[in-house]
Amino acid sequence: MSKDITIYDIAKDAGLSPATVSRALNDHPTVREKTKSKIFKIASKLGYQSNIFAANLRTNRSNNIGVIVPMLDSKFQASVIAGMETVASEAGFNLLISQSLNSQEKELANVHTMFKSRVDGLLVSQTSNEFGTQHFKPFFRKNIPVIFYDRVGNCDNCLGIVIDNVNAAYTATKHLLEQGYKRIFHVLGSEKIDVYRDRLKGYKLALIENHIAYNGDLVMFSKLSEDACEDIIEKMQELEQMPDALFVSNDGCAANCIQVLKSKGICVPDDIAVVGFNNDGISRLVEPNLTTINYPGQEMGEIAMKSLLQRLEDPSSTTLNQTEKISLRSELIIRDSSVKK
Amino acid sequence: MSKDITIYDIAKDAGLSPATVSRALNDHPTVREKTKSKIFKIASKLGYQSNIFAANLRTNRSNNIGVIVPMLDSKFQASVIAGMETVASEAGFNLLISQSLNSQEKELANVHTMFKSRVDGLLVSQTSNEFGTQHFKPFFRKNIPVIFYDRVGNCDNCLGIVIDNVNAAYTATKHLLEQGYKRIFHVLGSEKIDVYRDRLKGYKLALIENHIAYNGDLVMFSKLSEDACEDIIEKMQELEQMPDALFVSNDGCAANCIQVLKSKGICVPDDIAVVGFNNDGISRLVEPNLTTINYPGQEMGEIAMKSLLQRLEDPSSTTLNQTEKISLRSELIIRDSSVKK
DNA sequence: ATAATAATTGAAATCGATTGTATTTTTATT
DNA sequence: AATAAAAATACAATCGATTTCAATTATTAT
Fold this sequence. Notes:
The structure is a homodimer of 341-residue chains. The first copy, chain A, has 341 residues and is of the alpha/beta class. Chain A has helices at 7-14, 18-25, 33-46, 52-59, 75-90, 104-116, 137-141, 165-178, 194-209, 229-238, 251-263, 297-313; strands at residues 64-69, 94-99, 121-124, 146-149, 159-163, 184-188, 219-221, 245-248, 273-275, 292-294, 324-328, 331-333. The first copy, chain A, is 42% helix and 15% strand. Chains A and B meet through helix 4, helix 5, strand 2, helix 6 and helix 11 of A and helix 4, helix 5, strand 2, helix 6 and helix 11 of B.
């Protein structure tokens, strides 16, 4: 295995010092253009490839950004990552990605690994908001920026990129009301999570605006897992009057509900309308197609990464007093499951 | 920002040399146990964190494995990555992941980035098999192991981890025949791709075994995109006799076909059975649920990573004369779309 | 043409861990 | 106790790029 070409080889070939070669390759302004082009020519002639290990050691930066995701199994996650990647590679950074697989233990391990790898910054969508942010302390101490997205942790000096959940739920609920549905059953994830508290706010807002009294019996907190729909439908049927619409905070769960409802001979959307959340691929495949909220994954990824890079450039911008949030607009996608034929 | 603790700090505190500290921390056998424990105690007291940049430079290894994936949007991809991650982190490696988003240009860029990042090895599921493996040359030249999985490129000295496509297609076809379906329309991706040629073999094998003549009109090559199903169904209807079963090499496409068939008043599975491939989430959501082939993502990821790590340990094992393949068993999941009521 | 100033380039230290070889310490043997 | 052998530790070079400060060269003004 032949040895790698270094700046010393280039320097010798060019009759210059390694210092000048280094500066030329980094496009430093004090190097004459003529010298630069000479060096670049030799570099490509010799097939020079910068040794990032040496550069990392000297500059104490890895040019890697860590990303911790619950799971890489949806179009949404894929597009968030794609957005991040676009912005990062533009700026010369790579992504060190790991899945927490919805395990807090794994999230903990991932955070630790990222720290050992000396990533320059961290983007996190948390396993659970209830997990806290204690485990990011090593990052905070070293002033390495940590930015949350989608599932956002609460901590001082942290930034979170989220969708405007209040507005999203408001829009979905309003749509149902406009279609003439009045008794809207709303299924959410854990009450402890901001995301769902916000959505509940949006739901209430739409009701108030349409002069409909809020009824706590029509709101349910659930795990939103694929098998949670049995419980959901059971709970609906226990009510003295069956709801005429179902607004579930997750497409997978909503899709399954449709299946169960159909199997019970309940017609969607005539007997009951269904609205989901996320615009998963599933939503276009259940029968009837699911009305849902689309959120801009790509954009979220881009904004999260941009914010991170900005903090790397200007560390003073990290000094916030509490979790600051950037909310993205989401959009309602109306399909058959919520429109009376 | 206080300075990081180095092995020199530990050495001073322990009254030993940095060399011994380094060896102790790496659990080198020539260091006395007593010395080791002393050093570990001091290291943790001082909050020492190894500087991987320095280690990387000295050892000329990054401890990063690059992974290039078409897109991170399915359970299958997520579980492959999870499998890789499990094995890698066990051995002290991290994953540098990037999506090619089905663009050859992007795959090219990713490969280049991975090379610049000096990953110790590369795991690739290619955008397209027709893309060739020219762009991996820098890796080959430096003897950095590249292993393909799922979508496997053809090249000398390369290993590919695939499923046993012959057997998978054989099993699916046999199942249809056993259910009494006789005219099975088989839709595949490009003829140039091994994967599909193998599946065609399996299809033929099952026919022969059941004394049914092979009919080329019943085989179609397609892009398998979500909107390809119009063509598929059109082609089926052009036949003098309509097929009674449809075996499509992709769940998404198969699911769409079901939708289109239903919209045309053709009943699945009574008029025509449908079998897909991949066991995507979709398959459990179309109506009727889709019979499909499940392949072991987690296992594939684990095996790919294990093979890679083995080559890192023993570089001589890289010397193969051509693409060698490891085939994994897949399983047929029978659901409503292929079982007559 | 010459001094003064600006523009380039070079020398050498540095980042922190690793490792081949030399040296010291410990243990075993007679 | 003295010596040989083995075990443990230290010295010092090294990996390759970056960067401060000093030195040199080029440019401008007088």
